[in-house]
Amino acid sequence: MRIEKSFFPKVVLLLIILGFVLATVSNPDHETYALTVGTSICFFLAALFTAYYVFTQSNRKTDLMEYSLEALGKTYPRIARINYRTGECIFIKDCEEKMKTFVTYDWETFRADFLAQIHPEEVEKCRTFTALENFRRAGEQNVVSETCIYRRLFHGEYLWIQCFFLPVTDQGAADCVLMFAKNVDDSVKAEELYKKQLGLLLQKTRNAERKNREYLRSLSEDVRTPIDAAIHMTESASTALAEGNLEKTQVYLRSLSSIGRYLQTQLDDMDHIGLKNEQWMNSTRERFCLKCMLEGCWIYYTEAVFERREELFELVVEPQIERVYVGDEIRLIQLINAMITAICRHRREDGKVKLTVKLAESDAHKDIISFCVVGESDGFLPAFREMIELMFTAQPTEDSDGEEYLLPVGMALKVMDGEIRMDDTQTSNNVTLVVPLHRIERAE
Questions:
Q1: Phi and psi (nearest 5°) for 286?
Q2: Angstrom distances, CA of residue 368 to CA of 166, 322, 353, 436
């Protein structure tokens, strides 16, 4: 049960009156005189105890308020007392000196200068927060305001300031609020730096996830076509075997073996790049017959890509090409597949695709081989250029650290020390792969 403050003085007065009445009306000759006098003394003592209790509690509350204000003064070195009725403002300029230094202003005059120093983005917020009507509402409702954080100009630099106000409840400062303010620039900037670093970390995580998705999507496309080709060649091999054509059956089986090794390499890439997030790619150096590889490519494209329509794909190999080289046959097939895939996506309907392989340069130990793919199209299309650049060149990430990433075929081009060229002066889409291959023996 809550007891009002005005209740205690009434109790003291009642006890005094009762004690005085009993002392006055008591008869010394009466047998109850001693009891009456004792009762009067008890009433007087109770009145003194009640008065002492009320006095000590009042002083304790005053001490607590002074202690709270002193503690707030140490945390908030700038304190102002504002009368929201008259607009008078008293600034306490030195809280360390037990709040002995005061300066008086008209609040509206000071507020106009104050708002002129606020950052433009926080002016309206501060205008509402520092309005006398806002102070009056808080004072009448006896509630502490919310904290306001804003930027104020000090010596040519905006600093972050935090402030709040609370109503003054003692009778000597009625219709007033105390406003407390402090510099929180270091803590706010530290928090902003933390949020920025956290945002960068989150962005890097998102970029890594996006790169993984791009890798997996690109690799899945590289895997889908060979699987379709393997199905077609298996059917063709079965048909040739049923017809008794063993030579053709052997050709299809060699192509199936090549497709199997190609798919195995792609799955290894998927494991390293897409799942383990390792930005590297295996490369092997083995002996292989370039012309045999190209013959396998011709069978692969005519069977799977062009659906056995041999007139849509032409392979031209210059006789100067060495037959046996040391290099990564699977990566070379991967690069040729990527170029033909891009050409097929941007050729005319039933447009012809031509792959020309020739010797570009030669020295004592290696040959520079050129693989040029041309597809019939209505000019050199910008969409084709964009696709080639996306596939083979480094793409920037969305963060600001300058990091770049490559799609799988771009990584294959890098490990092969190859180069991609395009000639936009031609009347059709074209792309050329130039790659060095170490020579083993020269064809007779």
A1: -135, 160
A2: 82, 11, 23, 4
